[in-house]
């Protein structure tokens, strides 16, 4: 272990339905930062999925792992932060701050937890060649000896029906479910697991749009809005899942509706860690058009990623497109239920 590089996390391919059978096991898909944690004596490292070091941003987790009565291990898991009444991805993002004093202040105010779902090495022995069933046994044994409330063991079931039930009852609580073959060795960097993500839909007002490129011959994306409790239309994300012909057609549909201000609350163009197009000018629209979009995650009151266009909703009144239709982040009771606490 001493000179070996940190392995890349084993990954999952997206599927439409969970595989079933006696050779499969299922775990919740947690909404956090994927992390490989390694300890060799006094040296503890946290490494992201992209291979970047995370230890300086999570000194609380480093200290927790350094305090365990096990001094040689490699663990695969997810960094999570409970903030307010749920798990907060935004709180994780706030940790990625250049000032050490700020990071340590956040670590003291909102300490992170580490959710375990695989054991790659223990007591200096490489376990990656073992089948997942044996690695899981080693992980359960490792966790049982720690006794730290911020080191969590991810639930696992071999019942596909229970995994499907997680998806159904956990629509506002889980990012999805991951399926693993019990005989599968750990294969770093390969997409050999299967995952099904929890998708939700929302009806949104089209409060603006961006052109595709500088020629302005087609629409690049629709800017989506929802009304808050004060009746202000806040920008919540975008959708761009149209083909080239559709984007040209959209230009004729949208340009007659150009009229400031478009968004009367939070508007596009400001500093945002969610936006990928914030430097591009946008056109405001009269709030008349409504679309239904599919999304996977929200952070705060924003879609974290681009959404998928499903359909136009001419039957839906724009003023009825409100923030309260968004799924909220995981409540502590839901987490306790999944962990069997």
Write up this protein:
Strands 3, 4, 5, 6, 7, 8 and 9 form a 7-stranded mixed sheet that branches. Strands 12, 13, 14, 15, 16 and 19 form a 6-stranded antiparallel sheet that branches. The protein has 341 residues and is α+β, with helices and mostly antiparallel strands. The protein folds into 2 domains: 11-198, D-amino Acid Aminotransferase, Chain A, domain 1; 200-325, OB fold (Dihydrolipoamide Acetyltransferase, E2P). It starts with 10 loop residues before the first strand and ends with a helix. The chain is built from 7 helices and 19 strands.
Quick take:
With 341 residues, this protein is an alpha+beta fold. It has helices at 59-66, 89-94, 100-109, 132-144, 160-169, 244-254, 332-339, and strands spanning 11-14, 24-29, 33-40, 43-48, 72-83, 86-87, 112-122, 125-126, 151-153, 176-181, 191-197, 200-211, 219-227, 233-239, 283-284, 290-295, 298-299, 302-303, 308-312.
Helix content: 10-25%
The proportion of strand residues reads: 25-35%
> Which whole number gives the mean pLDDT?
87
Uncertain regions: pLDDT < 50 for 5+ in a row? 270-279, 329-333
Order of helical and strand elements: EEEEHEEHHEEHEHEEEEEHEEEEEH
CATH top level label of the largest domain: Alpha Beta
Q: Summarize the main sheet.
A: 7 strands, mixed
Report how far apart the termini are.
34 Å
Total count of helical runs of at least 4 residues: 7
Number of domains: 2
- Report the principal-axis shape: elongated
Q: Supply the CATH superfamily name of the largest domain.
A: DNA ligase/mRNA capping enzyme
């Amino acid at each position: 272990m001493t000179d070996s590089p940190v392995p890349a996390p084993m990954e999952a391919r997206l599927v439409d339905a969970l595989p079933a059978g006696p050779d499969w096991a299922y775990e919740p898909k947690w909404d956090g930062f994927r992390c490989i944690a390694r300890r060799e004596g006094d040296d503890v490292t946290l490494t992201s999925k992209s291979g970047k070091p995370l230890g300086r941003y999570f000194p609380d987790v480093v200290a927790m792992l350094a305090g365990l009565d096990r001094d040689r291990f490699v663990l695969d898991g997810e960094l999570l932060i409970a903030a307010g009444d749920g798990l907060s991805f935004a709180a994780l993002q706030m940790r990625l701050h250049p000032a050490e004093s700020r990071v340590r202040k956040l670590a003291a105010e909102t300490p992170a937890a580490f959710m375990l779902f695989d054991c790659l090495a223990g007591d200096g022995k490489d376990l990656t060649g073992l089948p997942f069933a044996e690695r899981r046994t080693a992980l359960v044994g490792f966790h049982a000896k720690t006794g730290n409330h911020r080191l969590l063991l991810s639930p696992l079931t071999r019942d596909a029906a229970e995994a499907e039930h997680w998806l159904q009852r956990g629509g506002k609580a889980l990012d999805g479910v991951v399926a693993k073959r019990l005989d599968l060795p750990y294969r770093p960097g390969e997409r050999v697991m299967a995952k099904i993500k929890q998708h939700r839909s929302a009806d949104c007002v089209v409060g603006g749009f961006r052109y595709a490129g500088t020629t302005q011959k087609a629409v690049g994306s629709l800017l989506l809005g929802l009304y808050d409790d004060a009746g202000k239309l806040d920008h919540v994300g975008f959708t761009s899942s149209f083909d080239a012909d559709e984007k040209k057609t959209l230009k004729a549909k949208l340009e007659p509706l150009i009229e400031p201000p478009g968004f009367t609350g939070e508007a596009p163009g400001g500093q945002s860690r969610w936006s990928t197009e914030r430097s591009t000018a946008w056109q405001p629209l009269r709030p008349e058009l409504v679309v239904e979009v599919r999304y996977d995650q929200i952070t705060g009151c924003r879609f974290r990623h681009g959404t998928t266009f499903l359909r136009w909703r001419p039957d839906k009144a724009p003023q009825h497109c409100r923030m309260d239709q968004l799924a909220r982040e995981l409540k502590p009771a839901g987490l306790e239920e999944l962990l069997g606490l």
